[in-house]
Amino acid sequence: MTKPMVLLVERDEELQQHLQTLLLSQGFEISSVSDVTGVLHVLRQRRGLDLLIINAWLETSEEGLELAQLIRRADRHIPTILLVTHSSEDLAIAALRAGVNDYLKSPFTSEALLASIRRCLPGVPAQHTAGLDSHTSSTLLHGEWMIGKSPQMQHVKTFIGKVAMTDSSALVTGETGTGKELVAALIHQNSCRRQKPFVPINCAAIPDGLLESELFGHERGAFTGAYARKDGALKVADGGTVFFDEIGDMSPYAQAKILRVIESKEVQRLGGRGSLPVDIRIIAATNRNLERMMATEQFRSDLFFRLNVATIHLPPLRERKEDLPDLFTHCIATMNRRFGVQVEGVTEETLAFLLRYDWPGNVRELRNLVEAIYINQPSRWITVTDLPEPFRRRFTETAHLPPDEREQVLQALFSTNWNKRLAAQKLHWSRMTLYRKLAKYHIVSGGKLAKAPEQEIVKLLGAVDR
Question: Exposure check for the chain: N or C terminus, fewer CB within 10 A?
């Protein structure tokens, strides 16, 4: 039986040797190169290559992504795994856009790498990845891309896993900046289509005049400047997932064209005579109310019902403020690497200040705020004075109301590092009252609903409630 052929792109000789030893022991045939020239030479000269593993060797991963894009132009079909030192939501989406099938954050275990290879090469006989369990619905692959332990986000992650196991169309809704493209990427990465392309399409950016050429492709000579045949985005995505971002901004003309593709599973190149079959999964996203748009005939009802098979709604950040510390920790770690500094975190006063803000731009606004703070060279601990003046002005304009009870509870918990006894004292409540408020507002710590141990409840039952 022919051994699967893996090409390692790795500059570090020690790591290269380690990966070679691991993969050879699993029955793979290995070839190694250390630069772009070597990769392109192998792609041109060697047939039968089954998998590429690229280590993004720089402090940032741009070179690895550029190499992945270059490889995709040379060979659209070969599965690719990207090894990265640092991981983030932006990198995850950029990797998918570049045609990367999977990526792992260092340090990673041998089991994790072999599991990734199995996902990319499902046809490889079991002996090549012996002892590994296939991905199941109980764990969401790359779930760490989505930051947040609040009940709302735990529910979203669970439902993403369920949707990914099907091949149904999905509609992702939520305000601007909540992470709708990340949801689409996670669905794709956890589906049986993960080895095929993930193709995002910005519906608001394609005018009707270019729609057919961009989505369906064109034949040579179809119009002035069409010097060669070109596949459209939908054909490029064949076998994979198409993500229609901001589908609520599509014109009626474009809606009709997309509906026909969904129903017929065919596309016709501009200037072409016949139709081409396409096998694609459709995921759409919008920050608009499509049902209201249907009522005013701005959005086709037949297209809506085709898309709205599985609906995933992303909550705005103001409804899950208990995720703010984790989000800030993630963004600070990302900016520390990017700017080459070492900021520890935000002060208690600053966090209380930020908890009172409603975050109309959601996670995107938070990420941009942290970047703006770094441009102004913050101190070791971010204080209120480190916040950009435009943000403080917006906060002043929206913070005329006192914090509601939920925000008061969160402020007390964060300021005491989730010590419930101290938080209750700060709020002038009994501990039993605090536990009841935690349950009432679904406030969690570490992903679990915070609640009193049974023995504490018995002990506190006689306490005088506030």
Answer: N
For residue 79, is the peptide bond before it cis, meaning its omega torsion is within 30 degrees of 0?
A: no
Nearest partner of 247 among 209, 197, 297, 282, judged by Cα: 282
Task: Render the burial of 298-315: b for 16+ CB within 10 Å, e for the rest.
Answer: ebbeebbebbeebebebb
**Alpha helix segments (H runs only) across 276-384:** 290-295, 301-307, 324-339, 348-355, 362-375
Query: Which is it for strands 281-286 and 29-33: parallel, antiparallel or unpaired?
Result: unpaired
Give 248-257 pLDDT, tens digit per residue.
999 999 999 9
Tens digit of each residue's pLDDT (9 = 90 or more) over 130-173: 443 444 334 678 888 899 888 899 999 999 999 999 999 999 99
Q: Cβ(385)–Cβ(427) under 8 Å?
A: no
Whether 350 contacts 384, CB under 8 Å: yes
d(CA 270, CA 222): 6
Name the residue range of residue 237's domain. 144-313
How many domains does the chain fold into?
Answer: 4
Domain boundary residue, one of 260, 282, 313: 313
Q: Residue 386: inside a domain, yes or no?
A: yes
Q: Does some domain include residue 465? A: no
Q: What is the pLDDT of residues 32-64, one digit of tens each?
A: 887 777 777 777 766 677 888 888 654 455 666
Query: Which sign does the torsion angle of CA 163, 167, 171, 175 carry?
Result: positive
* Model pLDDT, residue 432: 78
- C-beta separation of 253 from 215 below 8 A: no
Residues 290 and 166 in one domain: yes
Distance CA 411, CA 419 (A): 12
CATH code: domain of residue 171: 3.40.50.300
Three state DSSP letters for 246-260: CHHHCCHHHHHHHHH
Contact indicator for 437, 409 with CB cutoff of 8 Å: yes
- Whether 150 and 236 map to the same domain: the answer is yes
Residue-by-residue DSSP string for 226-289: --S-EE-HHHHTTTSEEEEETGGG--HHHHHHHHHHHHH-EE--BT-SS-EE---EEEEEESS-
Alpha-carbon distances, residue 284 vs 26, 168, 175, 308, 422 (angstroms): 40, 12, 14, 9, 46
Query: Do residue 266 and residue 227 come from a single domain?
Result: yes
Does 446 map to a domain? yes
Q: What distance in Å separates the CA atoms of residue 171 and residue 178, rounded to the nearest whole number?
A: 14
Q: Is residue 381 within a helix (H) or strand (E), and if so which, with residue range?
A: strand 381-382
- Examine the domain organization and report whether 445 and 340 are in the same domain: no
